[in-house]
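Example 3.2
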Amino acid sequence: MISRNEIKFVRQLEQKKYRTREGLFVAEGPKVVGDLMDNGFIPRQIFATGCSFGDSSVNRLVSEDELRKMSFLQHPQQVLALFEIPQETTHSSSLDPELYLALDGIQNPGNMGTIIRVAHWFGISRIFCSADTVDAWSPKVVQATMGSIASVKVVYTDLVELLSQTSLPVYGTLLDGSNIYAEELSPQGIIVMGNEGNGISDAVRCLVTKKLLIPAFHRGPDSLNVAIATAITCSEFRRRMAPAQ
């Protein structure tokens, strides 16, 4: 049996100020928890209704009702775990010649989680985020990543400082950009994706060295959902790298 205070402690981690204070985030479900542990994340505490994960010393057996009271899901999934939030830092001078994503003011947790999944799918190992981008360690984002948060490093940093100092090309998806399918794309660089409503901020836009546009093939919406646009953009970059068949 767990106490009301323990349930309250877990529920408080929905708020960023408590996650920051405790240095912990919540993950739920066998797949998400298992993927995190397989990628070196060590659980501080595991609450499960019957199955056991990892070191038995951190496992707590709970009833389905107790798990439901702690869970952030409509339908709890057997296990809920608390993990330490990794402290990721980086410097522009230390960036390897790879492909990266930079998120400028992304606000929707579902979009954020999907973008992390997209990065994982296309082998992008690091995402740089502006300070006003939604917290990647919120329960909604963690769940939306479906375990990909374990394989992609998310770094919150000053994007203006990072982009102004890097020697890598900086790509931005903009309505006044050039057709992505006709442009030359480098296998190394930083792809900037902007806020759902306002796009890339003016300060970051000034640092974009190549503006890209995903062309519409039929009159309709004014723009694409940012997570979909990220998937299309990453797919085109990786397609250029694929060996000819």
